[in-house]
Design goal:
The protein is α+β, with helices and mostly antiparallel strands. It has 2 domains: 31-177, 2-Layer Sandwich (Phosphorylase Kinase, domain 1); 182-279, Transferase(Phosphotransferase) domain 1 (Transferase(Phosphotransferase), domain 1, Orthogonal Bundle). The chain is built from 9 helices and 11 strands. The chain has helices at 12-18, 26-36, 53-59, 62-73, 111-114, 134-154, 193-209, 246-263, 270-279; strands at 79-86, 90-97, 100-107, 162-166, 169-173, 176-177, 180-181, 213-214, 223-226, 229-232, 239-240. The strands form 4 sheets. Strands 1-2-3-5-4 form a 5-stranded antiparallel sheet, with helices on both faces. Strands 6-7 form a two-stranded antiparallel sheet. Strands 8-11 form a two-stranded antiparallel sheet. Strand 1 (79-86) and strand 2 form a beta hairpin. It is globular, with a radius of gyration of 20 Å. The chain starts with 11 loop residues before the first helix and ends in a 13-residue tail after the last helix. The relative contact order is 0.10. Bound molecules: adenosine-5'-triphosphate (ATP) and magnesium ion (MG). Magnesium ion is lined by residues 87, 221-222, 234.
Length: 292
């Protein structure tokens, strides 16, 4: 845990100043110099001017920087180019590898963010008996998102391919083009909303029956539209059907998507949609199922 994490708010300014003193410690300075060019623009040298000091301070504590450094040494990241989004739990960056662009999701390691998250981990048998210490919890969360994405892809669902993860850093397939990430369903209007709705119900059903998972934060905020393809993102909170609240999460996911289609001028019934998810025979996975 960061030694300044527990100081009261009034010390925030002081804390901000002290926070990165560690960068001048010789061993970290060497590491930072190594990767500085890879964090485009941090000290104003790179192509991009985005990484203002605040983004840097918020995201790259020493442990995160160490993880990024290792991933760079491994060849998984060449440069971290610019932030795509800042979510509740993470910053997502556009990054470049020698194979092309990737999305790098870096989870915040501050305490407040993860207080509400334990309920998505307790009760999932895959994560039994793991330490509840905070940083460890964040790392588990990232591994959980990695595994959930992999399991969904193994069953043919359209989610970003998870490529690597280390500590609080997750590397995945980038959904977007040169101009930026694909828009979220929330931000656009589609001409075929009912088809979109049906495809999303199918996603929920395949995830439930074939992957044994419930997304648990399914909404127009976590669905990207790339050309005509729907991509579901943000699977950190997804849990298996054994989780005691799995049904509750499933109902919530279906409710959100029914609310969405009804806002597009349709009159879809929640109970019917739920029955469709639970009853419909689900087509066999198109992708070979691997481990997760
Ligand atoms: N693989 C990706 N390719 C392109 N953009 C992405 C990708 N993953 C995430 N994003 C962008 O980053 C945003 C935040 O990602 P995500 O929802 O996974 O994080 P979060 O911290 O859980 O966010 P929130 O709290 O807003 O749900 C997304 O809304 C999307 O715009
Ligand atoms: Mg999200």
């Amino acid at each position: 845990m960061d030694e300044y994490d527990d100081l009261p708010e009034v010390d925030a300014l002081l804390r901000a100043e002290k926070k990165h003193e560690w960068i001048s410690e010789p061993r970290f300075k060497r590491m930072f110099n190594d990767i500085e060019d890879g964090l485009q623009g941090v000290l104003g040298k790179g192509k991009y001017e985005w990484v203002d000091r605040r983004v840097f301070d918020q995201v790259f504590d020493r442990s995160t920087l160490l993880a990024v450094h290792k991933l760079m040494q491994k060849g998984q990241i060449e440069t971290i180019d610019y932030p795509i989004a800042r979510g509740k739990e993470a910053h997502v960056f556009h990054a470049t590898t020698n194979h092309g662009p990737v999305a790098v999701k870096i989870f915040h390691t501050t305490n407040a963010v993860f207080k509400g998250l334990a309920k998505y981990i307790d009760g999932d048998p895959r994560f039994k008996g793991l330490s509840r210490r905070h940083r460890e919890l964040v790392n588990i969360w990232v591994r959980k998102e990695f595994r959930n994405l992999r399991r969904m892809r193994n069953h043919g669902l359209r989610v970003p391919e998870p490529l690597d993860n280390l500590k609080n850093v997750l590397i995945m397939e980038y959904i977007g083009d040169d101009k930026g990430p694909s828009p979220r369903l929330k931000e656009i209007s589609v001409d075929n909303p009912y088809e979109v709705f049906e495809e999303l119900l199918d996603f929920i059903a395949i995830n439930w029956h074939n992957c044994d998972l419930v997304h648990a934060d399914f909404s127009e905020y976590n669905i990207l539209l790339n050309d005509d393809e729907l991509w579901v993102i943000d699977a950190g909170q997804s849990v298996t059907r054994q989780h005691p609240s799995a049904e509750e999460f499933l109902v919530r996911d279906v409710t959100r998507i029914v609310d969405w289609i009804n806002r597009q001028g349709h009159n879809v019934d929640l109970a019917e949609s739920l029955a469709r998810v639970l009853d419909d025979p689900v087509p066999e996975a198109s992708r070979a199922s691997g481990g997760d």
